## 1
Amino acid sequence: MSAGTQVLKPGSVVQDSYRIESLLGEGGMGATYRAINLATGHPVAVKVMSPAFAANRQAVELFRRESTHLRAVQHEAIIRYETTLQDREGRLFLVMEFVDGKPLKHYLARGQRLGSADVLGLGLRLAQGLDCIHALGLVHRDIAPDNILIPGDNVKKAKLIDFGLASDTIGTDKSIIGTGFAGKLDFCAPEQFGLFGNRVGAATDCYALGLVLMKVAGLAVPGEGKGLAAIEDRRDDIGIDGTRISEPLCRVLERLLVADPAGRAIDLVPLFEQAVLDTAHRLDKTPAAKAPPPSAVPPLPPAVEPAPGKANARAGLLIALGLVVLLALGGAGFALMGQHGSARSDAVALAGQALQDDDPMARVDALIATGGADNLNAALGSLMKLANDPVQPLQIRREATLAIARMYDPATHDPARSPFAAPDPAAAQRFYQKAAALTEDAAAQARVSP
């Protein structure tokens, strides 16, 4: 940003309430700054219109519309609104939650991509946010990588930002910019190009989300870089190359990328939840013939030969180990992408050693006690496999399930002993219920034993 367009300087105070710290970035209508709320001391993001746009009535209306929309939305996947201010000079300020992160565009520009399970995790998070705004009768209309913020490199905490182009007229072609174009050409739905009656609605956001997820998965986005000529690539349903991504992700994308919005999937949350469940089921049920090639799992150090009675069960655990650990690490986000890919291999090797041990639960306890990202991720992967493996004794499965529950439980959560940065009461409850069911199974088994 040039000196002539920069509106605020570090140290300046807005309305005696917010002290400007630094420039975060420049958008279409102005600039966004990191600031401090002087009353509470917490950081915020302050968006201010540039002088040129402040003189444009239509731009002012867009800015006011963004603040109105954000005030109505309350969801963890949507940037949180704090207040709107106007100073004596007539400048408008939108004060929002400050999130320490980078836009999705930042990672894509560096060639980083996600595996299918993580793409679905990101999709589910954004689907939950879109479900919230669509329920309020809003359409974002500009779902694109630069409007998706990734806090702390964790895609499972992604947030949608920039509601300046949002419309509150679902099912019509009316908006505050009339029939003019809104959105980024690379990630626009066919109806935004004027096809299918130019009727922009919830399905428009769903299509854009599908294109974004294609990009994140490493697939070529039809029409990207062609400008308005992209309309020729969006007239028909987009077919997905299923050889490079998982079948559940392929199925989701094909539902989202139907050309006619009338036939497009718009009930996003159940769609993604089912795909996530299908992915977990496929990985957990992977047969021996589908085991990852040797290059995918690093060679393990020499181990003590297992006792004769344990060899077959131990082999069954190791066959699916690589996939199970990758599933367990699915929420780790961009920290495990690109140049950081070796973290997964280390965790796979550590989990493999734990499952080869004569007392795998003791080895898992040792990993947890040692701590560190690799050890904790390996412990979780091992526990997930032990908890779900029908070959294991019910007591082992119960102990493993309880250990996972304690990693989630707010009463026992310890970042030094859990791979999860924050507790999750709902997840803890699910695993405690599963442990209780295993206890009942063990009791029933004991009653029928001679």
## 2
Amino acid sequence: MSNCIVIQVGQCGNQIGGRFWDMVLQEHARNNKRGIYDDALATFFRNVKTNRAGCSNVEVGDGKGRITGLRARGVMIDMEPGVIDQIRRSPLSELFGEEQQVVSNSGSGNNWAVGNCVYGPQYREEILEAVRKQAEFCPSLQSFFMLGSLGGGTGSGLGSYVCEMLYDEYPEVYRFHAPIMPSANDDVVTSPYNSILSLSKLIDTADCVLPIENEALLDIFQRVTQQTETGVQARKRRMALTDSGDAAMGGMCGVGARKTHPFDAMNNIAANLLMNMTSSMRFEGTMNVDINDIVTNLVPFPRMKFLLSSMTPLYTLTDARPPPRRLDQMFIDAFSRDCQLIRAEPKTSRYLACALIARGDVEVSDLRRNIERMSLQLKFPSWNREGWKTGLCSVPPLGQSRCLLSLANNCCIRQNLDILHSRFRKLYRRKANLHHYTAHIDVADIANSAENVRDIIAEYSSQEFK
């Protein structure tokens, strides 16, 4: 039994985190109808009705469907109270004690330097104590999952500070970071600075970085809503803490009579990445993939740690009914541009390594057959021609019979990083808005961060053209 702690930082991180906790509860409730605290639940939750961390087979709730008596293995951090206040007013508040929340009212002003250099040291002990308490409840802590954005001040600045803090304090625990990359028409004028400064820190302190682009999520949302119909699943009402039973999205973001905001659905897609990625840890399957397998198999060089993620079928609501897909077609989709969580075309670039995690009605023979077929179409380096890692989880996602997650270390990520670097250079050449940062950090630190990102782009380019 492995345990994971989710640390959600800033407005974006807490919005995605809210959707993740909502949906993962629904998933466990569907597969744990007796309401028993088991190893699957213990990955992301602890039982607050016992002082024995990791105690198994303890009845939770009435044992008839509704799961209660849990605390999330998570920490919420934000320098503005808005999103965390929404969570506090929702059913999700039962998952988080006061000791799991680090909140301020001042905000970071969309400035990485304020989040990293001001609020980082100011709140270091409070954040460290919140993480320490969660770690003490974990009998087998294996990884930290961090959620946040690159474009803002808190998610990028304080988020990268927390990642560096975990690197120092918990060097043996894997650190996964899923940063949301800003779009080209982002309304935060300083987002290029924030992105480069944050990326530089993540290159040095995270074990795996799983970038997600806002533009790619919006593309997926628009495409999926044209292809799917949504409705209430055939599930028992109130079968999870957050499940109202009559809202298409369930939980705290249940849409009711109001129109669904695209960001609600976009956050669902990002949350699904974490759920599918950890499915083999939480549920039984023919070929389980532990989280350390991902680092070991997909990061061949310590600095080249950016993983492209894609999922198929894609759906934005927990009650979506996507058109049925043949299994072989799902494998084709997983490597297509349309299913990537960043705007990229991986098939035109070199794969350093790739992992496939299938859930539901999939056989080992299906995986092997399709890997053999795709290997003829994809480019792998000569030193890693069999660079595949496969996992098979018997439990399908909510509302689907099966799904496929692809995680790939692919050289095409250099193009997305280069776009961010180009946006940075346009501002930096003119020293625009630079004085907001030099009040807290030296100009040389900014230049070094840009060079660090430039170096990783060059490293991916060298592998592409070897």
